[in-house]
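Most newcomers find our protein records easier to grasp once they have seen one. Each record describes a single protein and holds just a pair of labelled lines. A learned vocabulary of local backbone shapes supplies the integers on the structure line. Nothing more is needed to start thinking about how sequence determines fold. The record below serves as our worked example for the rest of this section.
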Amino acid sequence: MKITQILIFNFISISMVAQTTFQYDIMGNRIQKVSIGSNPIPTLSANPTTVSSNQLSTLSASGCTGGNYSWSTGHQNITNLTVYPCITTTYYVYCTLPSCPTIKTQGQVSVQQLSPLTSNILTSEKTGNWNDPTVWCCGRVPTFSDAVIIYPTHMVTVTDNTAKAKSLKMEVPSSGIKYLNGGILQIKPN
């Protein structure tokens, strides 16, 4: 009679979201404590942290060594982001590392409300129709006195000939304007 030895290997899957301090043998027995590591937590700062409506603030992210940043505005892989909030806004930055869970942190830019709103910069808040006030920061449709910025992942649709702006900047990737039914955007710099 011949005896055959059969080896059975156990595989253990560990998902790390915080520092893990255990090591296991092939049979799944904990054998010693070791430091395996943890995901870095990104930090977010704003300069300045308080602005007038639609004035610029620069957001800065750090702490995602070896990973990629993603912003709540749709921007990717940049450490500094210029924003023009019209209301007090909380921004998020995400740190993604290969084979690790995504870590999120937040920062806020406070806006002092001035009356009347005197800003001439309007930014997109979401995808939608150019003539829909809810698409734009401050809840109004752009005019010839407004510099317009369309943020990434926002697609603004122009469906007639009433769309106006002083200037237009489209942040990449994936932002844009879609023209339907003969829509025309009129740009009139001063």
Notes: Residues 1-21 have pLDDT under 50 and may be disordered. The radius of gyration is 25 Å. DSSP finds no helices and 17 strands in the chain.
